[in-house]
Amino acid sequence: MTPNYVKQEGFRLLEGPEKPAGVEFAARYESFIVEPDTYCFHLLRRFSLKGGKILRLRLQSVEEAFCLEGYKVSLVVNCSGMGFGDQKTFIIRGQTCLIAETATKTVTQQNADGTWTFLVPRPLNGGTVVGGTKEVGDWNPTASMAVREELLRNAAKMYPGIVNSKGGFDVIKDIVGRRPAREGGMRLEVETLPNKRPVVHAYGIGGRGFETSWGIAEDVQRMVTETLGKRPLASRL
User: Fold this and answer.
1) Yes or no: domain 90-182 corresponds to CATH 3.30.9.10
2) For the FAD dependent oxidoreductase domain, which residue ranges apply (predicted)?
3) Are 183 and 87 in contact (CB under 8 A)?
4) Strand 76-78 relative to strand 197-203: parallel, antiparallel, unpaired?
């Protein structure tokens, strides 16, 4: 059975001479890429211009969000990543490497051993992200030099045109991140706490936050609107 995404505009399966030797499945598709720092700053600025306010607080539970001094909180959206002690959540550590060389396109490959090799060029001449690892339950914040060398070696093998004139890479920095995932998938639902305090949960998405954020935001907005019993709200993003 052909997956639905095969029918999407801009998606094409590679067959015959287009498919690399030894590869079982190959495709070319159109998508978007973002430079995370620039993109997040853009969203934050739009939020502020729409009247949004930002508070930096350390909360021990979602209930504390209803008790902020000087604010009357009617509803809380819990997008905390790990869900305040949800026993189904877990961390997936990821290590990547940012290099100065620029790939001409995004390339992703799943290797025979289940690992991944990918190149993601950053916009605005921001270099290329080389990845990557998926290490369940690993909280280590320190980059491994052995992992870096393996990532770069795999990248050069997959996409030889990315190496520089010296046959290597100009490494800008190593990147280590933690993806908050959840058994059974993300939690996206409304919960009513004691005293009829509503919480919209939206967390545990793992490593697909940028990809799915707008769709999740639409669902969250719908839940907020229905829960508060108001007409549809204009997006503040």
Assistant:
1) yes
2) 21-220
3) no
4) parallel
Taking 70 as the threshold, does the pLDDT of residue 59 lie above it?
A: yes
The pLDDT tens digits for 4-16 are 767 788 899 999 9
Asked whether the beta carbons of 121 and 102 are under 8 A apart, the reply is yes
Has domain 36-88+183-228 been given CATH number 3.40.50.720?
Answer: yes
Same CATH topology for 36-88+183-228 and 90-182? no
The model's pTM is 0.83
Give the span between the Cα atoms of 156 and 217, in whole angstroms. 38
Q: What is the pLDDT of residues 63-85, one digit of tens each?
A: 999 999 899 999 999 999 999 98
- Please choose, from the candidates 192, 187, 199, the residue with its C-alpha nearest in 3D space to the C-alpha of residue 73: 199
Where are the domains positioned within the chain?
1-30, 36-88+183-228, 90-182
195-198: long-range pairs with CB below 8 Å, 24+: 197/63, 197/66, 197/75, 197/76, 198/74, 198/75, 198/76, 198/227, 198/228
